[in-house]
Design goal:
It contains 15 helices and 13 strands. The chain is an alpha/beta fold.
Length: 429
């Protein structure tokens, strides 16, 4: 029996890829099958913080529960602007990107409901921005009147106009301006149910994907426009992003596996199947709109509590060892069968494990009303992060087969085809 490499599964047991024989545990083709039970949502309900559990446990289907869970974590990742940790010798922040892919009318409306989690914070921030803008207009009027009287007053400085919910129907330059206005001290979250909206914005000028890649990594984004004599620089972007769409739409945003946005994003892909859901009201059914509205108030409380002071999240030595093993084993697996361009997928998904650990640990700090500036991730939360990222990796491996192929990947597919044609038992000379 041929066995090629192994990697640590969510429970850190060895999962082998056996390409021949009836006793095969899991094959590459099975992992890439969206109907495989491996893609199902299996996070233990007992382990997840209550503020997230309440959101996903009332969903009408397993896939909608998975989407709600991922979306809830990603929204919180954008709100925890004062939470950080040290990863690979650099300080990083928890902001995450999530892309959900499924057929039309598959229940992706859960993504739309996640906006309600952000609205209480958004309303506070934008109300203050409007107040400062109005005050600025009054000061400018006073300035102009003073000039007419012959005085030489100091020109008022226009305040940044901060918003939390950033629309996807936006030019790259305007997106950079929003991120610059936030200055890393205001949450910035982009939620869009149709990927086409953002890809249409690309045509307005600039590279939307380039800005998103920089924002996902927290890298400085600079923008200069000659005609407008404009220079904008954002030094500490903390954008969180949630998008959903169909497989046909994804190539408008991510060109191929070498596109850095692919490896920087959590993915959740599913096939809902052909099944009609009962749409009639029922006395025992949860009103999801009310549920998300109520959860939004608690999200506001989490944001306000964690914004008071800086919080650093750390892992234990044992957790770092497991995370390094997780990344290394996936790195070899992806390199062997998908090429060097997918190596970034393993590396950045390991970072996403740490980011989810920061989010969960931030929630625990709020729950315990801790004032400690340094908190350690629990083993339970670390395991949840591993579980979630493992699911994203499986979806990513399916999605890569749908993206346009690079030359190196075509060669690797030939290598895999040759391997599959070998007999179950053979000798080497």
């Amino acid at each position: 029996m041929k066995n090629v490499n192994t990697f640590q599964e969510a429970n850190h047991s060895q999962l082998s890829f056996d390409f021949k024989g009836d006793n095969a545990q899991q094959t590459i083709s099975n992992i890439n099958n969206p109907n495989n039970p491996f893609n199902m949502f299996e996070v233990e309900y007992k382990g997840m913080p209550q503020v997230v559990k309440k959101i996903y446990e009332s969903q009408p289907s397993e896939h909608e529960a998975a989407m709600a869970c991922f979306a809830a974590i990603v929204v919180l990742s954008g709100m925890m602007i004062n939470v950080s940790g040290v990863y690979h010798h650099k300080r990083v922040f928890p902001n995450l990107f999530l892309i959900v892919l499924a057929a039309a009318a598959s229940g992706k409306s859960t993504i739309s409901l996640s906006r309600k989690l952000v609205m209480p914070v958004h309303d506070i921030i934008i109300t203050e921005s409007k107040r400062l803008e109005q005050q600025y207009k009054i000061e400018m009027l006073q300035y102009q009147n003073a000039i007419k009287r012959g005085s030489t007053p100091i020109i008022p400085e226009r305040p940044p106009f901060r918003v939390v919910l950033i629309p996807a129907d936006i030019t790259p330059s305007r997106l950079v301006q929003h991120l610059a206005d936030a200055e890393g001290i205001t949450p910035t979250i982009l939620i869009e149910e149709e990927i086409d909206t953002s890809t249409a914005s690309k045509k307005a000028g600039g590279d939307f994907s380039y800005v998103l890649r920089k924002a996902a990594s927290g890298e400085t984004i600079s923008l200069s426009r000659k005609g407008e004599n404009q220079y904008v620089e954002c030094n500490n972007p903390k954008l969180a992003l949630i998008m959903s769409g169909t497989m046909d739409q994804i190539t408008g945003l991510i060109r191929n596996a070498e596109d850095g946005l692919y490896s920087r994003s959590l993915f959740y892909h599913f096939n809902a199947g052909v099944e009609w859901q009962n749409v009639a009201p029922c006395p025992d059914c949860v009103n999801l709109s009310d549920l998300f509205n109520k959860a939004g108030k608690e999200y506001l409380a989490i944001y306000q509590y964690l914004s008071q002071d800086e919080t650093e999240v750390r892992l234990t030595e044992a957790q770092w060892d497991k995370l390094n093993g997780f990344g290394e084993s996936h790195l070899h697996q992806l390199y062997n069968f998908h090429g060097e361009e997918t190596s970034a997928l393993a590396k950045r998904h390991a970072l996403m494990v740490f980011k989810i650990c920061m989010v969960l640990s931030g929630i625990r700090k709020y729950e315990q009303k801790s004032s400690s500036p340094i908190i350690y991730c629990t083993d339970q939360d670390f395991q949840i992060a591993i579980n979630m990222v493992s699911k994203s990796l499986k979806s990513s491996l399916y999605i890569i087969r749908q993206l346009p192929k690079s030359t190196s990947e075509r060669l690797l597919n030939q290598k895999k085809a040759f391997f599959d044609q070998l007999p179950e038992r053979f000798t080497r000379k």
